């Protein structure tokens, strides 16, 4: 005997037998945004105004073509239907725009935090460089003083050698010139 499929339990709902169409939410959202944008243009308002004026003129002036007499109930129904569809489309477009704005705001905040961290890092590095440059200047000055002290000591010990040594200007040019003349 082969095992059959387990019997469905009464508390387990059956799956739907209807095939639901697969709808791409982004495509629907883009379509609603384009329609909502069109509703807000001057072109749409002009087209709607021309249609309403033609509707009224046909139903008032052309007796033989009259399809919606004076209270214009059919025109009112058309406006109501258009408003019933326009309002949700506009709300969908606003929600999508709000989502885009929220994502952009989060991205801007993240970028601002990175920029702030980079700026703080660079400020710390700059402060460290300033301290290092100050230490180098102090070291250079102390080395110069030590060398001057040593030179003074050497001159005191050997006064006869100091007359023969060329004068030192600090840039090394006079020692090079002395070597070229010898």
Structure description:
- With 182 residues, the protein is an all-alpha fold.
- The protein has one domain (25-164).
- The protein is built from 5 helices and no strands.
- It has helices at residues 25-39, 42-61, 73-157, 159-164, 173-181.
- Helix 1 (25-39) crosses helix 3 (73-157).
- The radius of gyration is 46 Å and the shape is elongated.
- Mean pLDDT is 83; it is low at 173-182.
Secondary-structure blueprint:
Blueprint: H1 25-39, H2 42-61, H3 73-157, H4 159-164, H5 173-181
Helix pairs in contact: 1-3
Throw out a few tags for this protein.
182 residues; mainly alpha; 5 helices; disordered C terminus
Q: Calculate the mean pLDDT score and round it.
A: 83
Q: Unreliable stretches, pLDDT < 50, 5 or more residues?
A: 173-182
The quaternary state of the protein chains shown equals single chain
Secondary structure tally, helices: 5
The total number of structural domains is 1
The gross shape turns out to be: elongated
User: Biggest sheet: strands, sense, closure?
Assistant: none
Structural class: mainly alpha
The SSE string, one letter per element, is: HHHHH
Radius of gyration: 46 Å
Strand share of the residues? under 5%
The helix content, as a percent range, equals over 70%
Strand elements, count: 0
- The separation of the N and C termini measures 119 Å
